[in-house]
Amino acid sequence: MPTGEKIRVMIVDDVSETRENVRKLLQFESDVDVVGAARTGKEAIQLSQDLNPDVVLMDINMPDMDGISATEAIRAKQPSVQVVILSVQGDQNYMRRAMLAGARDFLTKPPLGDELISAIRRAGSMAQSEREKNAQVHQVAPAASHVGSVIGYGSSKGKIVTIYSPKGGTGCTTLAVNLALTLHNEDTRVALVDANLQFGDVAVFMNEQGKNTVVDLAPRAEELDPEIVEDVMLKHAASGLHILAAPSRPEYAERVSSSQFTKVLEYLRQMYAYVIVDTATLLTDVTLAAIDISDLLVLVTTQDIPSIKNCRLFLDLSQTLGIERERILFVMNRFDKRINITPERVAENLKQEVVSVIPFDEQTTTKAVNRGVPFVLDSKNQPAARGVFSLAESVRARVAAQESVDEPNRAVRR
What we know:
Blueprint: E1 7-12, H1 16-26, E2 32-38, H2 41-51, E3 55-59, H3 67-77, E4 82-87, H4 92-100, E5 105-108, H5 113-135, H6 137-151, E6 159-164, H7 172-183, E7 190-194, H8 202-205, H9 214-217, H10 226-232, E8 234-235, E9 242-244, H11 258-268, E10 274-278, H12 285-293, E11 296-301, H13 305-321, E12 328-335, H14 343-350, E13 354-359, H15 362-371, H16 375-378, H17 383-413
Parallel strand pairs: 1-2, 1-3, 3-4, 4-5, 6-10, 6-11, 7-9, 7-10, 11-12, 12-13
Antiparallel strand pairs: 8-9
């Protein structure tokens, strides 16, 4: 949320004691303001329109209308309002139904204090982002047209592709850098963004350095224009790829809020055909913001058991986060044929297709990192490079599939 602006929260529960307990828990949070409470689902729908909260804490079991139906009704009328479902039922079916109804999060009652506050803050940032997007709808079209003339990309909206792994050391940065370069050409401009704000290495992998980083864009997120972005982005000399580097010192990461980061990405997608985002392993607010706004999420695993286990946990969590499986491109990196854990076995076990396999090619990848020359530039015939080219084709195919689904909807709106 913008500095000094509180997250407006409405509580919905048919038990007065529960409403009061939640209110008391939240009163100690300086950035949260409880603006009202409702006892029933129908009352919640009306009160939400009157109070226009950022976040609704919604009980799932109520006498007149269940919380899922109330969530659906509220979101239909107020799309920017984010709903966090609270339920004594931790059942996966409840979670799935809640997310399909438009809930932002699902917590089991009674929620832990830190867990509830974190969920409210994530939802509050998303509500603010949604309101900003709605408010700028009439400004975006002319801005995109102007930006297109500066950057060389047309007025259609670009795609945000986030690279993420819940296990460190799986090669996300290597994939992000080489994928961005593979997708980039004169007709398809690409921006590469480092969202690992404490220890990001994207610029190092490309042997680039400059005084400007994401810290120089984030505070100006409300007033970005093509010239400001051009001044801050690093330009990769060999390819022309634009890079938004991580802060130069770990402590500077605190200067970038998730809301600011979301707005920066939203602006960049008006300027570039693709925005490739490299992320940290921890699900920080900034990482979650990148995942939330992404059109595609490239989920990376390797053949080791901890990596596969963590991907399973993330795929389970993705339901709670509201990430459709169709948005996820599951990739196995550093595949070694000598290891009997195959992509097919992993896909069957995790119930998620492995769309791309990047062969183990340690000599090529290590040499590329140490030289600061990504391997898709000078080792195009090596196995790792061919694997990245295959991944790029999977990205293009999934984007095309998304657009074929979206096109009839746009025609209807016209």
